[in-house]
Known about the structure:
By secondary structure, this protein is mostly beta strands. Helices cover 6% and strands 31% of the residues. The chain contains four helices and 21 strands. It is globular and about 65 Å long.
Amino acid sequence: MAGATCTGWPVQGGPESDRTGLGNTNFPEASSTTYWTTKLSGVPGTTVTVAGRFPYGRFTALEVYTGDELVDHISDVDIQPDPGQNNPYVSGTDNGTYTVTVMFGPQPATKAPNTIYTGFLTSVVLMYRIYHATDANDPAGGARDPVLPALFVDGAWLQTCPVRPFLKISDSTPWGRLDDGGFIGSPPGPRTRIASFDPPVWSITAPYSAHYYPNGANFYMSATLSREFISPATGRTLYLVRFRAPTFPDTRAGEPVYADRQVHFWSMCTDDPYTTNVNRCLPDDAVVLDADGFATFVFSDRSTKPSDALLQQHKANWIALGALRRSTDVVYDRAQQPWGVNTPVHYYNALLYRQTLARGSFLQSFANVYKAPLDQQQAAMGDYWPVGGYCTAESFAAQGFACTGH
Length: 406
């Protein structure tokens, strides 16, 4: 925990930074994202100076929120470096410095360079976010002097809180056990049911129309799985989905982030819709593709997980649905209220597929296809649209993804 005098970036997030899972809400990227937040307030015309250094990572941004809704943001490629400095998201390798202004007031018709706005709000949360740091053991992405952006507020520089290291998922904690067990909770009652379908329906969400602290550079696809359709009682214990994977700069393998690829980053996650707790995620560079560039995902409880040999044979990736394992286990919602095994927590599962900062030339991206009428979006995305269905373990073993009927 930060000390009493630590006021710059006092909250560090990302589920891996929280052993208990108490803070494992709203930020569904359990494997790759780190974020820091600071509360800011001011009257119209107040400015806050953010003086930072570009990290080495797949993506970074500064974003302003009210509640859990996005107000404004600036992404890495749009941040102009200080004179004589370099933006490694645009060219070169040196991670230079930059200066961004948070302006309390409405956004003008033409935004000023390196400026984000609060609108008519006088109290906001400023977030600094890093995706997939090049050094997997360094949440700050190799930035030094400063490690985290310095904040100049009310005529003084805030004391920056220290960066906390990533913590390994421990099986001794409820969050660490989420991929170990099957559902042992209570089915939802009429008032807590969530609409779900067989097969699940996928839809695209834009960042400025989403809740739960969306990233301004992300467009999302999501679908809801239900244990009404996936359980030993039905005989179908797996859900499979397949799509052509977008290309990305493999920065941990030495590629520059500005390489000519379709997106900066993509990932697939499972998430509990009642609490918005993250279950498990796979980032793009951990996903196995087939020879044609398609990604196949299998979602299930560990008790019904296909063998590693079968997954390898069918070029498939397994992600746990997530479930509480013990009668004493609880996870927490955004109000820090506990959800235990006597609740329907993890009865449903929200699948979240995100694309970060897609290139304009990637015509099948979520960001581009979102502009099309709903009944034309799947055709516009073509093979990039996720398709799938529920399967039995036996049919997957024999047929692979074809068990879905696609």
